[in-house]
Amino acid sequence: MPKMKVQKGDLVQMLSGKDRGKQGRIVSAHPADGKVIVENLNISKRHRKPQPIRDQSRMGGQQMTPGGIIDLPTAVPVSSVMVVCPTCRLPTRVGYRFKEIKGETIKVRHCKRAGCEQEIDR
């Protein structure tokens, strides 16, 4: 399993592909595949048929999900995105530091850009 330095909720910038230079938040991360899904980036169109809704209430007629052409974000390799530092607002590499808080050591991510080096984690 590859190590991923990005997490769900991080603001990232696309480094390659049709959305190069655009920024978005990570919706989900898949470490086993080495891929992430970024909201509103790498959108593909899927054709869907109308289908009945499962576990519907027994009152009324059958309810259907609408069909048609649906825009869905698709997975992007982790190597194609870079974390945006919340302090300097630039794409940056991520480093780790160990902090001592209340007697416990905690691993904290930080910006590796020279002059910034602020913590990325909330």
Structural class: mainly beta
Strand content: 35-45%
Shape: elongated
Mean pLDDT: 89
In sequence order, what are the helices and strands, one letter per element? EEEEEEEEEEE
Uncertain spans? none
Number of strands: 11
Cα end-to-end separation: 25 Å
Q: Estimate the helix proportion, in percent.
A: under 10%
Biggest β-sheet strands, sense, barrel: 5 strands, antiparallel
As an assembly, this protein is single chain
Radius of gyration: 20 Å
Number of helices: 0
Largest beta sheet: strand ordering: 8-3-2-1-9
Please give a structural write-up:
A hairpin with a 2-residue loop joins strand 10 and strand 11. The protein has strands spanning 11-14, 23-30, 35-38, 43-48, 51-52, 64-65, 68-73, 76-77, 81-83, 94-101, 104-111. The two termini are 25 Å apart. It is built from no helices and 11 strands. The protein is an all-beta fold and 122 residues long.
Descriptive tags:
mainly beta; 11 strands; 0% helix; 43% strand
Can you summarize this structure?
The protein contains no helices and eleven strands.
Layout of helices and strands, plus pairs?
Blueprint: E1 11-14, E2 23-30, E3 35-38, E4 43-48, E5 51-52, E6 64-65, E7 68-73, E8 76-77, E9 81-83, E10 94-101, E11 104-111
Antiparallel strand pairs: 1-2, 1-9, 2-3, 3-8, 4-7, 5-6, 10-11
